[in-house]
Design brief:
The complex is a heterodimer of chains A (50) and B (444).
Chain A lengths: L6 H10 L9 H24 L1
Chain B lengths: L8 H9 L5 H19 L2 E4 L1 H16 L11 E5 L26 H8 L3 E6 L19 E2 L2 E5 L5 H8 L5 E6 L5 H7 L2 E4 L19 E6 L2 H11 L16 E5 H6 L2 H4 L1 H11 L3 E5 L5 H19 L1 H5 L5 H7 L7 H21 L5 E5 L15 H4 L5 H6 L3 E9 L2 E8 L5 H14 L9
Parallel strand pairs in B: 2-3, 2-6, 9-10, 9-11
Antiparallel strand pairs in B: 1-3, 4-5, 6-8, 7-8, 7-12, 11-13, 12-13
Helix pairs in contact in B: 2-3, 5-6, 11-14
The chains are: A mainly alpha (50), B alpha/beta (444).
Amino acid sequence: MKNKLDKDFIIRKIIEEKIFISEDEIEIILVGVALIYKINNNINIFIEYD
Amino acid sequence: MRNLHQLNIHEISTLIESKKASSLELSKLLLKRILLYDKYLNSFIYINEKEVLKRAKLLDYEINIGKYRGLLHGVPISIKDAFDMLGVPTTVGSKVFLDSYPSKNSNVVKKLLNAGSIILGKNETTEFCFGGPSSDSAFLPAKNPWDLNRWTGGSSGGGAAAVASQLCFGSIGTDTGGSVRLPAAWCGIVGFMPTPGSISRTGVFELSNSLDAVGVLTKSIFDATILTNTISKKNNLLSLPEVQYGKKIGIAYNLFKNAEDRITFIYDDIYHQLEKNGFILKKISEFDIKNYASVQSIITVSEAYKKYKKYLNSSRQIGFYTRSRLCLGAFVTKENYQDALTAREKCIDKYGKIMENYDFIILPSAMTLSPSIKSKDPFLFLNNPLPTTVANVVGVPSIVLPWSIADGLPTSIQILGKKGDDQALINFAYFIEKIRKKWVFPRL
């Protein structure tokens, strides 16, 4: 599972998936990906410990 | 005396049946109001004036020859631009779908037409019915009639603005995490999502197959019952609402307390009013919406990405706000998605245990009042868990209704019920509507 915010990985993934994002938009996408990772972690904690 | 556009569906219906008002007169009145006001509201993206007037004449003729179809006969309503309707593209607010003409009507549209309603047009939606706000989709975002500098909420924001502005008597929307109920709350109207699955989604834009549901936006609980009955799979899913006493109510105190002040403030008022009327109330101190909202986000993002990723590959026609939300699905792994499904089961179990003690739960519809329309956060709903997500994740009916006005904006409460027991929820909401102060709509 890739849950650390690795900018290179994210950019590579965007290229691999052929997602149309410009250079000036990438910083915003990084914010969104960080949120998704955080939410995934919330879910893992909920499943494991709640 | 109130003008015709200020009446509810059940009031206007009586006038139409008794020939004291005609569908044609009503349609002309509402078309005139749309022409006058919608340039400020952006609530409609499509109006077919010629077809509306033609149909109104036909429905008046039917009344004159004694063919009355029921409570929606000749009543002008609207639908979100997510429902297929012959002759009109289903764009879901996207430039990608501007020429996407359906080959047949959605089941909801079929039922509305069979019931004799007049579909005035299609309402604005956040692009792809996905979160919001967006300022770069195919159409301008709808504005909140209580304050044109504020947002309606999304995604069924156009319908909510149109109903609140009394440009139509009701609207049909879709709801994946609150898309009917949040705009209803911020625009000061009723938003009802019956138990998911009660209304057909055939011919309706799909955002998340697991969580999507259809709901109604109306001026009253009574009207929500009429519209729901018309479009639900089962004939007469609901009886007309009646007041019932003595139910056990849980109130999510922690959510009211953590909401913005103007929402926190209504808690005591609701508690007092219900206690005075003989309800058994219990304060819930730890109703945690974070887990429900997390599950809703991951499932929605993942399913939407799988279905629409092709549109991210070759085209910049999708606005950046929607692209930025959609592309997050690329970062949800199969394991993450599976975990979200497991967590959903756990949420259902937890909710079931809570509901062993209550008939209903009252919680805020949203944690804030309507925000500025200039908000530029594409991840607004990922950053701020919505109390409306609970019902989609757990699969239960939920209704929001306005409660009071604070600083010129509507406050609202949400009621959650038990799966399949939509009637009890409607009855209780009807009671709350009765004890609330008389509601007023924005003066337009």
